[in-house]
């Protein structure tokens, strides 16, 4: 059983498998003072909408909000690069007093005239919610005057956490869905929801579906295009990868257009194969199923022999996983098992009760499951469980390095594609490279030297701050 001391208000958010019946608290506001790893509402909406490459993205607020989320995803575009421009109204003290509506209107008119985007998303930040700017009215006026649909994103940061930002993003996207022509869309067609083309992963997945004989109408939002999103309601199936960010939009489309939903993961051999087979089974086409069988057979038979050399070195190593959504953590546990590793800690920022229940069922005895952890808590569990590897995002990286652990970036800032069969090979290479790096031997040496200096300092104080003769202090 864990010996790490836990804040009283955090105990319900932590579960160690095998010590008690499963009952973890989640989907609650972060505990004040716990320095949560969660981001704000604005950040949540921004990371979802950011990859729509031919839209204008304008942050109505102080410049810091724009700087904080500039180029926040490693989301690649096969064409336009407008999404990588982080425009801001740069609200100042005077704007807080007198309002920023005129400034927003002028900025939008100028930007739309210059860039002629397919659509514009306007993000409200904390200060805008406090001063009461009518962003919706400005958006309606600009839309009418320019002919470019200008969509408000109600993402004031103080309204909740990153997960509430997902809701704001889905509400904004819903204003585009259903406004385009669906003529010519194949009955063997899907939308990919919740993949953000990190390091080109959406292109890999689309290529798999192409080989299967399945058309992708829209990718929402990786390498996304406004016109594709407008007509995505004509697809036969919605395939949801990141359930936390996109389930709400998929549910709205199911209610309004009758489009069914399946939930998938594109990480790891097992989940990638299942994702392709699930689509083929739903579409119920013999040619598609045959193509899928051939594709999976060829990819797996090519991949497995390449993984053996990494598994030899990683066998028995211990890993910790902390992701944005808990569903991704499930894939990580399976992928680590493929490499011979054991997961001793698993957690997420935004998981729900069902996600954590599945995580607990998949985990080994003694695995610590964390909801919305904080840096100190996570660090203590890493030390207690003697982890060799931490898989997380940019905020978790310093924790791993300070503890002398290997680290694998599986968040939206990474530049290496980890989805698909080729992504599994990239994942194995990255995990192997960091876990077996000789630099961690130096970290151990550093700890021994620190302990030696502490011992020397103690002997000096006991001997009148004199150096100890004869090496008795060693």
Automatic annotation (TrEMBL):
<dbReference type="Pfam" id="PF00148">
    <property type="entry name" value="Oxidored_nitro"/>
</dbReference>
<comment type="pathway">
    <text>Cofactor biosynthesis; Fe-Mo cofactor biosynthesis.</text>
</comment>
<feature type="domain" description="Nitrogenase/oxidoreductase component 1">
    <location>
        <begin position="40"/>
        <end position="435"/>
    </location>
</feature>
<comment type="similarity">
    <text>Belongs to the NifD/NifK/NifE/NifN family.</text>
</comment>
<dbReference type="InterPro" id="IPR000510">
    <property type="entry name" value="Nase/OxRdtase_comp1"/>
</dbReference>
<dbReference type="GO" id="GO:0016163">
    <property type="term" value="F:nitrogenase activity"/>
</dbReference>
<keyword id="KW-0560">Oxidoreductase</keyword>
<dbReference type="InterPro" id="IPR049939">
    <property type="entry name" value="NifE-like"/>
</dbReference>
<keyword id="KW-0535">Nitrogen fixation</keyword>
<protein>
    <recommendedName>
        <fullName>Nitrogenase iron-molybdenum cofactor biosynthesis protein NifE</fullName>
    </recommendedName>
</protein>
<comment type="function">
    <text>This protein may play a role in the biosynthesis of the prosthetic group of nitrogenase (FeMo cofactor).</text>
</comment>
<dbReference type="InterPro" id="IPR000318">
    <property type="entry name" value="Nase_comp1_CS"/>
</dbReference>
<dbReference type="InterPro" id="IPR005973">
    <property type="entry name" value="NifE"/>
</dbReference>
<dbReference type="GO" id="GO:0065003">
    <property type="term" value="P:protein-containing complex assembly"/>
</dbReference>
């Amino acid at each position: 059983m864990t010996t790490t001391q836990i804040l009283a208000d955090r105990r319900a958010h932590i579960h160690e498998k095998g010590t008690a019946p499963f009952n973890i608290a989640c989907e609650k506001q972060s505990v004040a003072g716990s320095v949560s790893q969660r981001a704000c509402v604005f950040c949540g909406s921004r990371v979802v909408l950011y990859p729509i490459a031919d839209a204008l993205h304008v942050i109505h607020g102080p410049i810091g909000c724009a700087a904080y989320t500039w180029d926040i995803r490693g989301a690649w575009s096969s064409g336009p690069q407008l999404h990588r421009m982080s425009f801001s109204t740069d609200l100042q003290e005077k704007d807080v007093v007198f309002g920023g509506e005129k400034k927003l209107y002028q900025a939008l008119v100028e930007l739309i005239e210059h860039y002629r985007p397919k659509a514009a998303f306007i993000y409200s930040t904390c200060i805008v919610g406090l001063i009461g700017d009518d962003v919706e009215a400005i958006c309606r006026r600009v839309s009418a005057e320019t002919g470019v649909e200008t969509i408000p994103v109600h993402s004031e940061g103080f309204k909740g956490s990153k997960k509430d930002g997902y809701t704001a993003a889905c509400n904004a996207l819903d204003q585009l869905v259903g406004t385009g022509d669906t003529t010519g869309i194949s009955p063997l067609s899907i939308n990919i929801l919740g993949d953000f083309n990190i390091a080109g992963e959406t292109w890999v997945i689309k290529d798999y579906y192409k080989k299967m004989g399945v058309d992708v109408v829209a990718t929402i939002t990786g390498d996304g295009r406004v016109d594709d999103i407008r007509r995505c309601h004509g697809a036969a199936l919605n395939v949801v990868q990141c359930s936390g960010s996109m389930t709400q939009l998929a549910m709205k489309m199911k209610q309004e257009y009758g489009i069914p939903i399946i939930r998938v993961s594109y990480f790891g051999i097992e989940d990638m194969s299942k994702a392709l087979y699930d689509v083929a089974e739903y579409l119920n086409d013999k040619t598609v199923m045959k193509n899928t069988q051939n594709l999976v057979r060829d990819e797996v038979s090519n991949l497995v022999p390449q993984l053996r050399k990494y598994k030899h070195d990683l066998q028995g190593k211990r890993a910790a996983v902390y992701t944005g959504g808990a569903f991704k953590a499930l894939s990580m546990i399976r992928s680590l098992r493929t490499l011979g590793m054991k997961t001793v800690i698993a957690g997420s920022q935004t998981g729900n009760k069902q996600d954590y229940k599945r995580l607990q069922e998949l985990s080994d005895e003694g695995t610590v499951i964390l909801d919305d952890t904080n840096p100190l808590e996570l660090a203590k569990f890493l030390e207690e469980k003697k982890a060799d590897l931490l898989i997380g995002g940019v905020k978790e990286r310093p924790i791993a390095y300070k503890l002398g652990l290997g680290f694998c970036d599986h968040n939206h800032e990474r530049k290496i594609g980890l989805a698909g069969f080729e992504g599994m090979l990239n994942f194995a290479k990255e995990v192997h490279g960091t876990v077996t790096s000789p630099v961690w031997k130096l970290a151990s040496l550093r700890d021994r030297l620190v302990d030696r200096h502490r011992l020397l300092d103690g002997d000096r104080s006991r001997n009148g701050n004199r150096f100890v003769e004869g090496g008795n202090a060693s």
